[in-house]
Amino acid sequence: MISVTPIQEKTMQERLCALCKIPYRAELLAYAAYNDQKAFVGICQFGLAPDGGHIHHLEIPGKEDTDDALFVMGRAAMNFIDLCGGKIAYFDGDAKGRDALLRRIGFTPDKQGRYTVSLDGFFTHPCQHHDC
Known about the structure:
7 strands; Aminopeptidase; seven-stranded mixed β-sheet; alpha+beta; about 30% strand
C-alpha cells in the first residue's frame, strides 16, 4: 500500500527533491509517498494560483515502476487543490512519455497540448474517471 503525507519541513522537501533529481522550489507545497516498508518512493510539488492548481513535479527517486505512487500523489494534490477552491488543475511538469499516467490521474491534453482537468465535481463521483 502507498501512503502519501504532506511534507511539513522545507529541509525535508529539499532533500527529497535532490533524491529525485528535481529542482527544489520552496514556494511550493509538497507530498511524499512511501511504500509498505516506509521507504520513500516519490514526491509531488504543487502550488495554488488564481487560475487553479499547478502540479509542477511528480517524480520518483529511481527507475522502479511506481506508477501507483505517482497516481496517488497526483490525486492527493488534486484533492487538496479542490478543497482549497481550485476549479482546474494543470500539470506543468515534464509530460513526455507520461500520457497514460496523466490520463489515469484524470488529466487530458487541451488544444495546446497542456494537461488539464476540471475539478468541478471530480471527487464527488470518483469512479466516473476510471474503472473502479
